[in-house]
Structures are given as C-alpha cells and as structure tokens.
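Ticket #4471: complex job returned nothing on first submit. Input attached below:
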Amino acid sequence: MNTFIRRGAGNLSAIFGIGSALCLASTAQAAAVFVTGTGANSTALQTVFDQFATKLGGTNNGVGGSFPDGYRRLNWDGVPDNFSEPNFMPGDFFNVQSPRGVVFNPLLDDGGSAYADFRVSATAASGVGVRFSDLNPAYANQFTTFSAQRLFMPHAAHAVLAKFYKPGTTIPATVSGFGVVLVDVDSSLDALRSTLIAYGPDGKQLVALTVPALSSGLSFVGITFDAGERIDHVVIRSGTAALGGGVNDSASVDVVVMDDMIYGEPQPVGECSLLKDGFQCPAP
Ligand SMILES: [Ca+2]
Ligand SMILES: [Ca+2]
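Support reply: We reran it on our side without changes. The output follows.
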C-alpha cells in the first residue's frame, strides 16, 4: 500500500508529484490536506481510509439526523435490489430513502441521453451478475470491492457531481472534507486520469486531486482542509468511459468504477450550523 498525506498551502497553481500520484492544485485559499493511497484489496487500503475518517472526526453518523461533527459514509451495500442492477438508483437516494445529506448528478454523459440516474452493482444472491458483469462479463475479474458487494457508477456517464444538503432536507450544506474509493484505475496521467475536484460555497474550485493508479486494485483520494474551508460540492471523474458491453480498458480507455465515499457531516448554509465549536450562524 502507498499512503500519502500532504498539506498544500498558498496560491498553488502547479502540478507536483506525490509518489505514484500527480496532484493538480489551484486555489486562492488552499490549505488543503490530501490523503491518497492504493491497495490491492480492502485490507491493504483500510489504513489510509481510516486515516481520512479520523481527520473528519472519527464518528460515523449513520443515517438521518444532524450532528455537530463526525462523518457520513456510503458503501452502496445496503441499497436494495429494486434500486440495483438491472434497475437504476435515483440520484437523491441518499437524501430521501436513506438520508445522509448527499445528492448526485451524472456528468460527462457518453450517450447523449443525459440520464439522471445511477448504477449500483448486484449481489451474488440476486442472480444478476456481480461487479457489473451483467453489463460486461470482463468486469467481474476487472473490478474488486472495498466493501462487498456493491459498486457505484453513473448511468451512461463517467463523472458525477455530489452536492451536499442537511440530511433529509433541501437545505444546502457544506462539508469539511470528501474522500472516495475508486476501482481499477489504470492511469494517473494526462487525459486518462481520474480526478476528485472540490468546490467552495462561492462556486470556485478549491482544489483538484489526481487519483493514484493501481490496475485491478483500489485507490483512495481524500480532500480536507486545515483552515476551516468548506466544500459545497465535489466532482469525481471516474475513468474515461461509461460502463457498457463493448467498453473495455485499452491504451486510450480506462474503465473505472467507485466504491465507498466518506464526507464530513453536512452543515446547513442557510441556518445556524451545529459545528463542533458551537453554533455558527450566517452573517446578517
Ligand atoms: Ca461496496
Ligand atoms: Ca481500468
């Protein structure tokens, strides 16, 4: 396993190497802390994932409610069969059916249909192919899991925008950090690379982080900050193509899927927040 934690500071606008990863940072207030790593399996990646969880506050707040600190986690494994392959999951599943304060929209639509829903892979018990092998038999061997058995990907797209809300409401919220596990990242170079980009409440990009590659393995990228910056939404670019029957890794294509996501407790923007240091209300 490779694990890196690095602080970015100042007005960065440069590409700099971090081990096997390349990080592109451009921000006016970047006091970003990056946590990245790779592992051949879930055991090998667990340490880096846990390091990031600790930075977010160390407590999983589960489903519903609102809390002054801690984090939320998605592993997709509890999504029921009627929202999993061959069915689709709505983008607001984790703010309506299982309220954890995040709503997804697909980006980088590959089919021109602009679907607004998502794929969650099937379990073995369902009789549908596991790890998206119902879409392409090669995927069963290509993809592994961080948390068995389900994986995540947009429908007919290869990037996703995640926007935060006070869990179970439509009140916009921000988070202190966001991390995601990606599966079978083959390249961290140039146009093939996968990325995690965080945006602030003013809509400006805070920082962008390239996902380290490990073919057939697991990669983790996490972004948080050491000076109180807040993330309004993130964009995850997972590979270069949507899943499909004829879509396979090649010199010009990297098929990547996602597993666990973890993010700081969403704190509402338009009302007083339950931040751990006390109530924080918006300026009048
Ligand atoms: Ca999972
Ligand atoms: Ca791949």
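Confidence is low (pLDDT under 50) at residues 8-27. Closing as resolved unless it happens again.
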